[in-house]
Amino acid sequence: MTRYVERFNTGERVLHWFVTMTFFTQILSGIGLFSRLFVGYFDLFGGGQGAILVHKYAGVLFLASSLLLFLNHRKEISVLDDDDRFWLSRLGGYLSRGHFEENNGKFNAGQKLFGMFMGASTVFLGITGLIIWWPLAFPRGIVQISLLIHGLIFVLFFMLVILHVYLATIGNPGTLDGMIWGRVTRLWAKKHHPKWYKERAGQEKTT
Ligand code: HEM
Fold first, then answer.
1. What is the bridge-based pairing of β-strands 183-185 and 4-6?
2. Residue 162: its pLDDT value, please?
3. 205 CA distance to ligand 1 centroid (A)?
4. In the beta sheet, which residues pair with residue 185?
5. Region 167-186 average pLDDT
6. How many domains does the chain have?
7. Assigned domain for 138 exists
8. For a tag site, which of 38, 58, 100, 159 has the least CB within 10 Å?
9. Is it the case that residue 207 has pLDDT exceeding 70?
10. Are 38 and 44 in contact (CB under 8 A)?
């Protein structure tokens, strides 16, 4: 038996990093549109028109890939069980110093909520984005509300992605290995996702 257990296959990893690339392209090309404070970022795209063009077409790629990522994980993230409720009641143990015994499946409750938020936000960013893309096709009030919702979701999404990156790297060492190499150590799996690890170990025995 090796030290490692498989966490994500190649397709899952490629899709995750593709979503990440398009997500940050959207942030860099859209931030100058969000506030005048950031118009300097337009230079990365040869000016405002270039940034808008990239924002529209990379937006379509983000919409499609992010929805696919959500759909791929939907079975694993859409149900919160008693262990998840326990995890939530203790906020994952992140705000206390005591030992926290977690019993997570493949994803913990925080990851599940992030995944659901990501799916819903992608849909709303897509719908509002398309309305802003063709503003003359819709009543003025709808376009203005769309601009507001698009901006609000962007702020929330960006903050949660920063938290996601922190928790997936410095916050929980060993986690990033799964998304880079596809495998994590058994020690990491037993500590963070014991229920999932037991299932995996059971499958290994029967194959
Ligand atoms: C540099 C940026 C990023 C890093 C380092 C990163 C890292 C990771 C890692 C290590 C995992 C696996 C977690 C585990 O095994 O438990 C993961 C999962 C995931 N990532 Fe990312 N990620 C990044 C950006 C993003 C972005 C931009 C999105 C969405 C827009 C995203 C969405 C997800 C989702 C939905 C999952 C699966 C469920 C979850 O962990 O919440 N990631 N990410």
1. antiparallel
2. 98
3. 29
4. 4
5. 98
6. 1
7. yes
8. 159
9. no
10. no
State the DSSP H helix or E strand holding residue 129, giving kind and residue range, or none if neither. Answer: helix 109-133
* Cβ partners under 8 Å of residue 71, min gap 6: 119
pTM (two decimals): 0.95
CA distance 183 to 189: 10
Residue nearest to atom 35 of ligand 1 (CA): 115
State whether the beta carbon of 7 lies less than 6 angstroms from ligand 1: yes
Which 3 state secondary structure label does DSSP give 185?
A: strand
Specify the CATH number for the domain of residue 27: 1.20.950.20
Is 49 within a domain? yes
Residue 23 is assigned to a structural domain of this protein: yes
Which mutation among 164, 176, 184 tests ligand 1's pocket best, with the greatest number of atoms within 8 A of CB?
Answer: 164
> Do the domain assignments include residue 184?
no
Distance of CA 76 to the CA centre of its chain: 14
Domain housing 47 = 11-93+106-178
Mean pLDDT computed over every residue of the chain: 96
* Residue range 20-55, pLDDT digits in tens: 999 999 999 999 999 999 999 999 999 999 999 999
138 touches 131 (CB < 8 A): yes
Pairwise CA distance, residues 89 & 195, whole Å: 18
Distance CA 14, CA 188 (A): 22
Average pLDDT over residues 84-97: 93
Torsion of CA 169, 171, 175, 179, to 10 degrees: -30
Give yes or no for residue 13 CB within 6 A of ligand 1: no
